[in-house]
Amino acid sequence: MNISFDPLAPLWVLGLFILVGAIFAGLSIWRNWRSGLLRALAIAALLGLLINPQWREAEETPLDDIVLVLSDLSASQSLDQRDAVTTSAVKQLTEKLESLENIEIRLHKFSGEEQTRTVEALRTALADAPRSRLGGVFIITDGQSADAEEASTELGLEAPVHLLITGKRDEIDRKITLINAPRYGIVRQSVRVSFRVDDLGNDEIPIGATGSAMVVLRVDGDEVLRQPVPFGEEVGFDAPLNRPGRTVIELEVEARSDELTERNNVVVLPITAIRDRLRVLLISGEPHPGERVWRNLLKSDPAVDLVHFTILRPIDKNESAPISELALIPFPQDELFIEKLSEFDLLIFDRYTYRGVLSSFHFDNIARFVDQGGAVLISSGPEYNGSLSLASQQNLSFILPAIPIGGAIEKPFRPAVTELGDRHPVTAGLPEQSFWGRWLRTMPVLKLRGQTLMTGPDDTPLLILDRVGEGRIGLFLSDHVWLWARGFDGGGPHAELLRRIAHWLMKEPELEEEALSLHSDGDALVIERRTMANTPSTVMLTHPDGEQSDHDLIEVEPGKFAVRLENLPRGLYRAASDELFAIGEIGLAAAPEFIDVVSSRKKLAPLAENTGGGIFSIQRGDAAKLPSIRKIRGNTTTRVAEDWAGIVTRNDARLESVKEVPAAPPLLWLVLIGASLLAAWRIEGGKRRK
To answer: Which of 151, 399, 448, 611 is the most exposed place for a label (fewest CB within 10 A)?
Structure first.
């Protein structure tokens, strides 16, 4: 019960009244102190009437103290019976709290397939709990949290936060950690990869400072190295990037028999190799309309460095004339085809005719260039037939996929994509095939090997692609692709066709006709296989837990097969089919939840330290052993001990209603005013009669 005021007049009126009343009371007391005191009493009673004091009485209902219980149900809690310990701890803690009086228990669960965010879960739980009623917080966890650095942030709590750690004190885990892990590199340049192997005990304290563990290095699924690595030391190696596209590097350390999990014994590093610049050498045998098409196409690509020479020496010139007198620029044949040929990604012969400029040694070096991984494209016209043709050069002809069998066929025809070409990424899906314009010339050949992707008149080969050793070669048997560029008879997709041919020859991954890939779509995993075969081989899929399963694929378009696997667990997946290897993941490949798995009392310790809470290791086999729970006063500094955890008694209440009654009825004030004035008059009247 307390007192309040309900004035009957504005405050400024009351203030003026007090001022005037004080002056009047003072003068009255100065003239006659006896009557003056009574007049002052009357003025005070009048002021009390105007102020109107009220007795206020509130009716309150005591509220229970709130205790939050947060259970960590993340993936790492499934290790080493921690989930059973958590269940046991929640049950025991609930029973202990229910045995206390005036306690409201609020249970919260938080999980994380990829990472645990304990501090975030605590903030969410606190948002619904009035701070004035909060008596304590219990967090049942293994101590691992992705937002542990926020644990030291001031949360403004006056109640203790107690951590109940579910892990054993003697647990051990081995893990491998990437230290320097580049995601991109340049083709033909090595990248430095470094890693460290650790054996960790409780609170992530390293154990086994001496000794080593066997580590296996795999590149695109193939084992390339196996050697012991010392614990706790950074070890590095140079990873070669010999081809463009994705190179998958795996590092796997041998497992311990007593470790928590083997999921962090493997790290995967996909490195995308890109070409710094695509270097193309274009050799034109004579000026012709198609020469400009090749030049414009290659010069328009900012990623291409083009070196272009046109050999102008005419056939009927005097063979005894010095070459320096017959060329506008001396042709550096030795520099290009002996010293620097390996620096180019693609060599294009555009209607080249043998004129004695290149020797048999140069052609032999070109063949060696292809066999060792280089690429050559021959775009031919009538010059491909005869003694001066490239096909007649013995040092080069053995790598060609076809040889001429006659002169050029001068006959209009529409280029057509073969059934094999419909499956090959170079020619598959070229637009508006039924509207392609006509070409007027093609070269008849005898095909020796390779894949015919396009045909000319009477189904004669028009485009042949082949692999030679580690390299590739292409043969284009018409010099009239420029008609498409000029829009003759409707034109055609010359730029896209030539771009695909050039990039296939330079081994661009998206144009590989034999490829295997994995990618996630939500919780589903999609396996895709591109092949020239009518039926692809079965794909063997390795799951994150090491289990393997075989899958047959369904054709979704010519040359492309796929299968969709629904509701798979998150983690890293490997696929193999024939000689192909692919890797993919659902969620994060290396989820933080399984990188650090040993229980830790240190990461979340600031939560307890800042609020006076405690940290308890509770695992006893597959059950929990909890400290006793005590209720303590809010001003108590000791809130925890080794065997008990405190809950602050808040004594909060809910206001139900408020009743106000006058401190004195108005009639009482009036009687007091009248009696005081009457007594003062009697005193002053008796004094005058004397």
So the answer is: 448
CB under 8 A, 24+ apart: contacts of 168-172: 168/80, 168/202, 168/599, 168/617, 168/619, 169/202, 169/617, 170/201, 170/202, 171/80, 171/201, 171/202, 171/260, 171/598, 171/599, 172/199, 172/200, 172/201, 172/207, 172/256, 172/258, 172/259, 172/260, 172/598
Q: Is 399 left (phi over 0), alpha (psi -120 to 50) or beta?
A: alpha
- Residue 106 phi, psi (nearest 5): -120, 115
Superfamily of 515-586 according to CATH? Immunoglobulins (2.60.40.10)
Alpha helices in 149-307 (DSSP H): 289-299
CA–chain centroid gap for 127, Å, is: 29
Its pTM stands at: 0.69
Taking the chain (690 residues) in consecutive chunks of 10 residues, what is each chunk's mean pLDDT? 74 78 77 74 77 76 90 89 92 93 92 82 90 92 88 84 91 92 86 92 82 89 88 89 83 90 87 84 84 84 84 52 55 83 91 82 91 93 88 89 92 94 93 92 94 94 94 94 91 92 90 90 88 91 87 92 88 86 75 83 91 91 89 84 91 74 76 77 64
Question: What is 278-505's CATH number, 3.40.1190.20, 3.40.50.1010, 3.40.50.880, 2.60.120.10?
Answer: 3.40.50.880
